[in-house]
Amino acid sequence: MISPKLKCILIEDEPLATKKIVEYIHMFPDLQLIKMVEDIENPALFSHDLKSADILFLDLIVSGGNINTLAELIADIPILIITSAVSRWHYPEFIKNRKHFALQKPISPEMFQSCIKEVMQY
To answer: Which residues form the Response regulatory domain (predicted)?
Structure first.
């Protein structure tokens, strides 16, 4: 039996970081990127996609608004991977209070691979 791919969403506004993370996602056949979001000003434009996501790659500083406005929308996403240069000590409470994985920028292929291996064991 073929297992379904894990549906991924990337919320990131830095072009180079977006390019790299997309490349890294494509290195894993079990991952499927279904949406990229550069601006969180209007969450209604991507809230439907969030409901079907298995993994959210989330930068904490994104154009268009405060990441805290997404707290309720992302609460039910099974796997949250923070992709940020922000120190863990400065993560918003809604992230600190839930299971999450972290990739500190700049993200190398090795860091990404290690994180995905950990996620797959979760």
So the answer is: 7-120
Please provide residue 7's backbone torsions phi and psi, each rounded to the nearest 5 degrees: -80, 125
Q: DSSP letter string over 11-58?
A: E---HHHHHHHHHHHHT-TTEEEEEEESB-S-GGGTHHHHHH-SEEEE
Q: How far apart are CA 122 and CA 118, in angstroms?
A: 6
Residue 68 in this model has a pLDDT that exceeds 70: yes
- Report the number of distinct structural domains present in the chain: 1
* 2-15 average pLDDT score: 91
CATH number at 55 reads: 3.40.50.2300
pTM for the model stands at 0.95
- Residue 2 has a pLDDT of 57
